[in-house]
Amino acid sequence: WVLMVTAQTPTNIAVIKYWGKRDESLILPINDSISVTLDPSHLCTTTTVAVSPAFSHDRMWLNGKEISLSGGRYQNCLREIRSRASDVEDEKKGIKIAKKDWENLHFHIASYNNFPTAAGLASSAAGFACLVYSLAKLMNVKEDNGQLSAIARQGSGSACRSLYGGFVKWIMGKDYNGSDSIAVQLVDENHWDELVILVAVVSSRQKETSSTSGMRETVETSPLVLHRAKEVVPKRIIEMEEAIKSRDFPAFARLTCSDSNQFHAVCLDTSPPIFYMNDTSHRIISCVEKWNRSEGTPQVAYTFDAGPNAVMIARNRKVAALLLQRLLFHFPPQSDADLNSYIVGDKSI
Ligand code: DP6
Which ligand 1 atom sits nearest the alpha carbon of residue 215? Predict the structure, then answer.
């Protein structure tokens, strides 16, 4: 027999960024962060997990290619989920798995991203969130999403925020064992549904410096990063929560753009410096800044993760249509060897 579960998880984009760990193996951050979860039909991971007595070891395929599960991050997630498994019964198939049997059963896992992997579009976030969620369903794990977020966090920090829709805060926590470093939903996907997210895929190539090694180098060498984590982010988190709750777009846009720019400044402050954005990214920033200034009040917020792709958040559908028009005029797809496509969606799960 084979028992299977399939789940779909959208990616999330941080508007107040996580950059830097205080514990590398448990993945505990040096500051809180806030993100918005995208619409699953636009940028998401679909994962099928199967269990069968015929499987002799755990195996995983990512976008059709087998990958190794020997890394600590996969092992931590698998161990944490296995230890919380419950009895499972499928009457139709005549399958009964007792809690203790899970120790000796193995999984085959197939995962697909509908967007470029490791190009700064948070593929690990959707990937680990989906892996943990689908395994938890398969093994009848009773934990709530907050507790599951602490497991997904051990796969990739940003993954903990993908277990909820809407706007989500990852609380850094204080415990040395990470039990209070979890994600909480600030507002659900219906709270601010005028927002439209537009992604400019500036490059679909793999980034040169992974987030993991990039943030390690920043923590080791940047004199700016502690000032950011201790002085700047705590204030921004309070202001951002307020802006989201009151749907204050000008404040939201100001905070989102400033935080993205400071994150990239901290990358430049790293030795050797890390460059995630390219010329097209910089030109997109100038274009949005010029437009926002000419309107007198911000219409669009931009943010860039560890890659050159631009994530833009328009205040409503009308602005999103104008933005797309502008982008297609100034940055037509394929005009630049790297510029691939635009993905338009809304923010909600
Ligand atoms: C720039 O979550 O990919 O996207 O925890 O080492 O797996 P690891 O890093 P990851 O880092 C994401 C960094 C970011 C900002 C953010 O999503 O908050």
Answer: 6
Atom of ligand 1 nearest to the CA of 212: 6
Ligand 1 pocket, residues with Cβ under 6 angstroms: 14, 17-19, 27, 33, 122, 124, 156-158, 211-212, 305-306
User: In the prediction, which pLDDT does 255 show?
Assistant: 98
On whether the pTM is more than 0.90, the answer is yes
Question: Which residue has the least CA distance to atom 12 on ligand 1?
Answer: 158
The atom number, within ligand 1, closest to the CA of 17 reads 18
% pLDDT > 70, the chain: 93
Q: Say if residue 1's pLDDT is above 60.
A: yes
- pLDDT tens digits along 86-102: 999 999 989 999 999 99
Q: Taking the CB of residue 333, how many other CB atoms lie within 10 A of it?
A: 13
Q: What pLDDT, on a 0 to 100 scale, did the predictor assign at position 342?
A: 72
Q: How far is CA 236 from CA 18, 101, 283, in A?
A: 13, 48, 26
Take atom 7 of ligand 1 and give the residue whose Cα is closest. 156
pLDDT-based confidence at 208, cuts 50/70/90?
Answer: confident
* Distance between CA atoms of residues 294 and 164, nearest Å: 36
Report CA(264)–ligand 1 centroid distance (Å). 13
pLDDT value at residue 340? 58
CA–centroid distance, residue 345 to ligand 1 (Å):
22
The pLDDT, as a whole number, for residue 304 is 96
Distance in angstroms between the alpha carbons of the first and the last residue of the chain = 33
Looking at ligand 1, which residue's alpha carbon is closest to its atom 11?
211
Instruction: Give the pairing of strands 106-113 and 59-62.
Output: parallel
